[in-house]
Amino acid sequence: MEQKFRLLRLTEGLKAEYAAHQLQGPADIWWNQYQEALPDNTVLDWNLFYEAFKGHFIPPGVMEMKHTEFMQLT
């Protein structure tokens, strides 16, 4: 996604909109419900989207495990 952001020269707010537009099925449903639960004045930027998505769909131990695997590549 971030390669596409650089190519398209998107602002932080547009990054979140672009990424959300790519979601399908359960992920799209999750994002719509997540947005509705936010306070009205919440700024929907890339950082909010990224952290919320990662927190919901990627278990914490997986990131550490993948990092360890990557560091052990030869």
Walk me through what this model shows:
The chain has 74 residues and is mostly helical. The chain has one domain. The protein is built from five helices and no strands.
Itemize the secondary structure elements and their pairings:
Elements (H helix, E strand, L loop, with lengths): L1 H7 L3 H11 L2 H13 L8 H12 L2 H12 L3
Structure summary, number of beta strands: 0
Radius of gyration: 15 Å
Helix content: over 70%
- The tally of helices reads 5
Number of domains: 1
Which descriptor suits the 3D outline?
globular
Strand content: under 5%
Terminal-residue CA separation: 27 Å
Poorly predicted ranges: none
Helix and strand run: HHHHH
Q: State the secondary-structure class.
A: mainly alpha
Largest sheet data: none
Round the mean pLDDT to the nearest integer and report it. 92
Write a brief caption for the model.
This protein has 74 residues and is mainly alpha-helical. It is built from five helices and no strands.
List keywords for this structure.
74 residues; mainly alpha; globular
